[in-house]
## 1
Amino acid sequence: RRTAILISGRGSNMEALLRATAAPGFPAEAVLVFSNRVDAGGLDIARAAGVEAASLSHRDYPSREAFDRAVDAVLVARGIDLVCLAGFMRVVSPWLCERWLGRMISIHPALLPAFKGLDTHARALDEGVKIHGASVHYVVPELDAGPIIAQAAVPVLDGDTPDALAARVLRQEHIIYPRALAMVASGRVRLEGARAVSRLDTS
Ligand code: GRF
């Protein structure tokens, strides 16, 4: 399934997805990397990998929805069927969420529903949690609230700084995001109402 990866920055999750989708037999093909930032480092990584890279600046649009309609036009023009938000630091408008409901997933650096929003690692340390992690979820209009597809947990260690914890979580993100994409692209998981449902093994 033709997949677009949306980024705003360095794109390490995008890189992990590009590597995974290049493997023979993977059920999704990354055909576009798109950014809201023309200077996103990940765009060059995509081009070097032979994947089309495009960007539109949200500052050129009068509203969130106007920008999202322009993004949607780019996706539709390329026959995109699945969208992966990978460090895409934009709140997706309800309009775009509805258009792509069940076909847009994202990764969040925390064990949702805990720590929605930003600065998750510093907040996890402030709260003194012992287990932290990452979540891949369907994108819905409410921020960081969509049905969960995959999660990974990491220990919080004594003396952890936000950067040390972030690095430990990021390593897991690079493992679970490709797996989650494969599950969604292959139809092993689908969105049913408010739940990500695994297809019961019929074997
Ligand atoms: C990751 O921690 C991801 O969970 C969050 O922002 C960061 C993006 O990193 N959405 P990268 O651009 O994928 O390296």
## 2
Amino acid sequence: EKGGFPHYMLKEIYEQPWVLENTLGGRLKEEEGDVELGLGLDPLAIDRIHVIACGTAAYAGWYGKYLLEALARIPTEWDVASEYRYRDPVVDERTLAIAISQSGETIDTLEGIREAKAKGARTLGVINAKGSSITREVEDVLYIHAGPEIGVASTKAYIAMLSAMAMLAIHFGRRRRILGKEEAQGLLKEMRKLPRLVEEVLEKRPLIAHLAEKYHQAQDFLFLGRHVQAPTAYEGALKLKEISYIHAEAYPAGEMKHGPIALIDEHLPVVVLATRGPLYEKTLSNIQEVRARGGKVIAIATEGDGEIGKLAQDVFPVPEVHPLLAPIVSVVPLQLLAYEIAVLLGRDVDQPRNLAKSVTVE
Ligand code: F6R
């Protein structure tokens, strides 16, 4: 069942190149510079988007906000569903509410979408489980096609959600004439490479095993990232806490000096998403700030980056890709790091304590 893997989680991490092929499948139309999603929804009939989800799916939503705003210029709010459903959101008929969910059964997400619908919103589900409750509640469904996910910690569904949000943003951007054909073609070409790039990261698992060996006794971890890599940092911290039970926090790196920097000492490993992109230089200064206070930096950096090795104690190189797509490649070492640490600590990786795969009660 586990296909020769000791845990479902590891099997699912290794399925990710195939999952990406499946999610992107016949949807990318490189020649037209568009994405075919088969949605009934008219992207010109909306003025704003509300993205709602829980946990890992919520981080995919946060990533989606960056892309929808960058590529389609649609004002996008992002909320955890448990807040959204009770905050009396301002919604009208030109609002599109997007629910993201692997199971399609998460109660807060389901109720959040009902709330938006009752207020007149258009609704779209970005969902893995066919025929699940949320798919029956929304007008349009964009299936992520990740296949069944058994491990309680979500991995392959996450990268499928990220790629679905990227496709959605490109599609909306094209229809709204914000995104030019050539720019879209460039992005689609990069998306096609994703399965192979994730495969390359998986081949470097021994490097992660080495890092896990080195850091698994830490009491706390900090994860930092900026822009689209901020959600990656949060997802990395969530993976680590849920399966290893090590306390981990994440911050958008620019927030460091507003408080969390006080935590830094020689006992704190700090994982920094430092791939090349518009905020790369700023992230380097964040790394310097950590180093100056004795913190141990594990940098997730673009392959061939010579500078970063001088600053960070440890570097995990990830293949270069368009900066907006970097999270899809960069989250993989963080999944593996959480996995390897949890195994070293003897945790029950597939069934972490106190957690259920789908949260159908409030
Ligand atoms: C984390 C995890 C949870 C889920 C969350 C939402 O690894 O699995 O945080 O992401 O409970 O679940 P879905 O996507 O089924 O709505």
